Each structure stands twice: as structure tokens, then as C-alpha cells.
């Protein structure tokens, strides 16, 4: 890490719930995040879109510190992300994550998947954790599956459990990394509906997705990434109807053909 980057200018104080300032990240020679500046307000829904390999997943992973960054700062509620220990465990609870591949614990029941974090990290009592988990499973429409194991559920159901699991921690923000791209088409909608609902209830969300319907009905802002950079940002309608950058135009041209 070089001093030169941090000493050249004063980093402006950002008011966002999540704020990335001058964030750079390399994997060896590959510069995957290039001077990213992004501030996400409380209650805001930001859709991140862009070609494969543009750094979208790395961006999400950096926000809950699954990936350390090289330079720049990331803050949650004005506080720099902790790097270890209890503070890191708390950060992971405060910043929920929903992955493409569901990532449920295969040998735990649906109910146990949702109560585990609250019991271990939030130190909730067993009764309270179960009651809350059942409410959340109800909310995402899978309460009747509570005693089953993940493999007994459809992909759409599993993903809704993953959302309930994230919600059970009372997160300040939830990051969704292509939450519907591993799903059969008929299950995409049921997951998106749960996400639209969350957005309506003012959950702060960062959503990597190419689902334009979701972006149009739920996003406050679309952020377009290419080659590790934020190339363009706009409200969904503006972005999808009149993107200004050549790269966004090319990209939309490709995904709209499908
Ligand atoms: N752990 C890693 N080690 C090395 N290269 C990686 C790693 N993770 C991602 N990359 C590379 O970083 C770039 C950005 O990846 P990623 O953030 O996953 O992009 P996206 O989610 O937009 O497809 C890609 O070129 C990818 O191959
Ligand atoms: Mg990705």
C-alpha cells in the first residue's frame, strides 16, 4: 500500500449509510476496482449492472469486507469497516448478503438456517429467535417449509429463505449479488416480488442484477460498471431509455436482444 494515495487530498466526509471513496482493488496485475466513489443513502435501492468481469461482485464483497481493498475508504454509518474480530462479525450482520448460489447450510433445517445468526451473533434467546424466524419465513412465503432441509426446496424457495436469513440479523443494508441468475425462469418472479416488497419497506439495498423490470419498479438509481469503473449512473428510466456512454449503449443492446 502506498502513502501517496492517501496523502494527496482530504477525503470528503460522506453522508451516505454506505460510502465508498476512492476505492481501488487489484487481484495481482488485474485492477478490478478503479477509484470507485459511491454513496448509498438510507432507504435507497441501487441496482448495479454491467458486463461479466466488470467488478460487480468484488464491489459487493468489499462492502462487507469479504474482500479487503488496497486503497480508499469504505464506511458504514460513517465508520470505516473493521478488519477483524467481533467488530467484523457485527459488520457482517449489519451488511446482509444474498448470493446467486443461495449458500444455505445443507445440514440444517430451514428454521435453523434462519435462527443461527441471531443466536450466535445477535445473542437472541432461542424462543425469540425462532419466533422472529417464523415471522420472516412467513413474510417470504415459506413458513410451511421450516422443518425441511434446503435440498428439499426449490431454488426459488431456497433463495427466499436466504433473504429471510439476511433479514433475521436486522441488517442496515442488504447486498444481493445476482440473486435470480441461478433460478429457473418460473421462479425468478417470486424472488423479485420479495425484493420489491423489501424495497417498498425502505430497506437499503444494493442489487447486482440484469432484471430491468426489478430496476424499473424498485431502484432509485442504476449504476453501470465496466472494467472496474463506474461508467454511468442514472435513475432507471433515464438509464434504460437513454444511456449516455457508448459502453452502456453496447451493453444494453446485447442484453435487450435476449
Ligand atoms: N479471488 C479472485 N482472484 C483473482 N481474480 C479474481 C478474483 N475474484 C474475481 N477476480 C477477477 O476480477 C474481475 C472482476 O470479477 P467480479 O467482481 O466477479 O466481476 P463481476 O461480478 O462483474 O462479473 C474478473 O476479471 C475476475 O476474473
Ligand atoms: Mg459477479
UniProtKB/TrEMBL annotation:
Cellular compartments per GO CC: plasma membrane
Calcium found in the keyword field: no
A Pfam family of this chain: ABC_tran
Reactions listed under catalytic activity: a polar amino acid(out) + ATP + H2O = a polar amino acid(in) + ADP + phosphate + H(+)
The protein's Enzyme Commission number: 7.4.2.1
Coiled-coil stretches noted in the UniProt entry, renumbered to this chain: none
Name recorded for this polypeptide: ABC-type polar-amino-acid transporter
Entry-linked SUPFAM superfamilies: P-loop containing nucleoside triphosphate hydrolases
Molecular function in Gene Ontology: ATP binding; ATP hydrolysis activity; ATPase-coupled polar amino acid-transporter activity
Membrane topology type: Peripheral membrane protein
Protein family (similarity comment): Belongs to the ABC transporter superfamily.
Keywords: Amino-acid transport, ATP-binding, Cell membrane, Hydrolase, Membrane, Nucleotide-binding, Transport
Signal peptide from the UniProt entry: none
Subcellular compartments: Cell membrane
Domain ABC transporter, first and last residues per copy: 18-252
Enzyme superclass (EC): translocase
